[in-house]
Specification:
This protein is mainly β. The chain has 2 domains: 8-165, Jelly Rolls; 170-294, Jelly Rolls (Sandwich), CATH 2.60.120.730. It has 4 helices and 20 strands. Strands 1, 4, 7, 8, 9 and 11 form a 6-stranded antiparallel β-sheet that branches. A 5-stranded antiparallel β-sheet has the order 2-3-10-5-6. Strands 12, 14, 17, 18 and 20 form a 5-stranded antiparallel β-sheet that branches. The relative contact order is 0.21. The mean pLDDT is 96.
Length: 298
């Protein structure tokens, strides 16, 4: 009979540096396997009891596992990517009865509950039993200025550990490109990625001056993977596969069919070229988040 690993819902109490404009550090105990972290955010100085937007409280979030940053994105970008997998996975706001009591809950998913195969979803949860005394599992949350922030964290965990070291997880890598026209050409976007990784998705966010990606062309090794697909075409395709992309990003998703076999191995890519058409000429930056399945220590 296989061993049973019940889930636990645990408050993470080791949180330091909660202040306006500061970077708060959430130190997660080592040993458990982490399925979800649920951040509660608010502004106790707000002049109303409304639930705040994620962007009004949180700037950038980083996840460090061992000694490497394995995820980096703004809170708003995390929310958009979560929502693309289903509206129910987005942030959840709760209004309060008095000023400053509104809270918004932002999940950070490690297991991926939107996947149809429970073993795949479960297998992506982050094991920490391999961490030694020098390794950490830490979430850094850069807080916005001009607020009196409230921040807490609850974790959904279990005690499973494979006993052999880190498991493959979904890593998020953020890159910013300068924009100076209505088109943007990016070459070799996966240069330096470990050959053992596999690409799950590429999310292209609105530029810093509010221009949107209206069309994309992607080639790997000279082979056309995305052939000048418009935003509307890409959105319609993802919706046909039960996804829920929202305004704010153009998502290229390789496993929209929910099969890990559809991820694109880095070892098979070689050169790459990504050409984007924007809604108008831009003079800012464009954030790209690439999700890759792989070893968190690589």
């Amino acid at each position: 009979m296989s061993k049973f690993y019940p889930t636990s819902n645990t408050q993470i109490r080791d949180i330091a540096g909660i202040a306006a404009g500061a970077t708060a550090l959430i130190n997660c105990p080592k040993g458990p396997r982490y399925r979800i972290l649920l951040l509660s955010i608010g502004n106790t100085a707000a002049g109303n009891g409304n639930a705040p937007t994620v962007a009004s409280i949180v700037d950038e979030i980083k996840v460090t596992l061992g000694s490497k940053v394995v995820r980096r994105a703004t809170g708003a970008q995390i929310d958009l990517i979560n929502t693309a997998n289903g509206a129910q996975y987005g942030s959840y706001g709760v209004g309060g009865g008095a000023n400053g009591t509104g809270r918004t809950y932002l999940p950070i998913f490690f297991e991926e509950p939107w996947r149809k195969r429970p073993d795949v979803s479960d297998g992506l949860a982050v094991q920490t039993g391999w961490l030694d005394k020098n390794g950490v599992f830490q979430i850094s949350v850069k807080l916005q200025t001009g607020i009196t922030p409230a921040l807490s964290c609850m974790a959904v965990t279990d005690a499973y550990y494979n006993g052999t070291g880190p498991n493959n997880i979904m890593k998020w890598f953020a890159d910013d490109a300068n924009t100076a026209a209505a088109t943007l050409d990016l070459a070799n976007i996966l240069q330096g990625a470990p050959a053992g990784d596999a690409v799950e998705s590429i999310s292209l966010f609105d530029t810093s001056d509010a221009k949107t990606v209206t069309q994309a062309r992607l080639t790997f090794g000279g082979v056309v993977i995305v052939d000048d697909m418009t935003y509307d075409q890409q959105t319609a395709k993802l919706k046909e596969y039960d996804m829920n992309p929202a305004a704010g990003a153009y998502h290229i998703v390789f496993d929209h069919d929910d099969q890990l076999q559809s991820l694109y191995p880095v070892s098979a890519i070689g050169s790459s070229q990504l050409t984007l058409t924007l809604s108008a000429a831009s003079a800012g930056t464009l954030r790209r988040i690439t999700q890759r399945l792989g070893d968190p220590t690589a």
